[in-house]
Amino acid sequence: MATVSTSGQSHDMGLHTEKLTNRTQQRFFDAGESANLTYAWAPEVDTNKVGTLDCEGMDATAINIRIRELMTEGCGTINLSNPGSMHGLCVGILSRLQLNVTGSLGYFGCGLIDGPNVNISGRVGWSCGENMMAGTIIVQKNAGSTFGAAIRGGDLVCRGDVGSRTGIDQKGGTIIVGGKTGAFTGFMMQRGRMIILGDAGINLGDSMYDGTIYVGGKIEGLGVDAVPADLNDLDRKWLKSKLDLYGMEAPNGIDNIQKIVAGKQLWNYDNLEPSEKKLVL
In the chain, what are the domains? Predict the structure, then answer.
């Protein structure tokens, strides 16, 4: 039987032994973030050309198809009404677009988007903005659990309260919550930044790998390997610019915001994890 190189298997599976010590987001943190680019094949749209979409009597599939048809027709602004809290609406939009939703969305609203600016006048259900790549989503009322799950870029904003597990597995971007958030917020967070202007529930930042969580209210309890850190001038500058952008304020002032980061004791930052070694050996 031919011998298979374990090193080759490791690289084929996307695993490697590159040293990660001291390589955190703080090394390339920049308060002035660059603009995201659009796809070459994205439809040419004009924000001055407005399309309307009344969702009454339509199902989610038909609504999502109609959004794409309006974009193909050049509509850069779409006003969507009567969504009826349906699940899976406004997903997979990979282009610049101003999307105004009058009403509330159900589960998985605005997931897998890369570029649009979305304003939702009502509430959203679980997992709004899941795997979001770029753009903005602003929710004017409250949001359900797993808000911004696995978000990778862009700004995801809820002006009200959100449920538990906000930003679970967050990989980038910014999540802003104007009110309070539930338990396990920032669970297994890997990159990005989160601002909670109200209170945070138990197990905040549990098992976080990297990233930063800012909390303006009370913290009920920190999770495993989540530790307090000092707020510096760069943090203050970024917090002010980001909150000003959405007309939001820290209730007790920016100087009293608490900063939470990973203690980096839970993970092995230098080599493959033991479980990964078992997988490839």
Answer: 9-280 (2.160.20.60)
Give, rounded to a whole angstrom, the gap between the first and last alpha carbons of the chain. Answer: 16
- Residue 214 has φ and ψ, to the nearest 5°, of -115, 135
Q: How confident is the model at residue 28 (pLDDT cuts 50, 70, 90)?
A: very low
What's the one-letter identity of residue 134? Answer: A
DSSP element (H, E) containing 47: strand 46-54
DSSP β-ladder status, 258-262 and 212-215: antiparallel
pLDDT for 269 equals 52
Decide if pLDDT at 86 tops 70: yes
Output the pLDDT for position 156.
Answer: 98
Token pair in block for residue 171: 């990989």
Q: How far apart are CA 281 and CA 279, in angstroms?
A: 6
pLDDT surpassing 70 at residue 242: yes
On whether the CB atoms of residues 214 and 239 are closer than 8 A, the answer is yes
Mean pLDDT value across residues 187-197: 96
d(CA 274, CA 120): 44
On whether the CB atoms of residues 77 and 50 are closer than 8 A, the answer is: yes
What CA–CA distance (Å, rounded) separates 104 from 65? Answer: 19
Bridge partners of 54, per DSSP, are 81
- Mean pLDDT score of the chain: 87
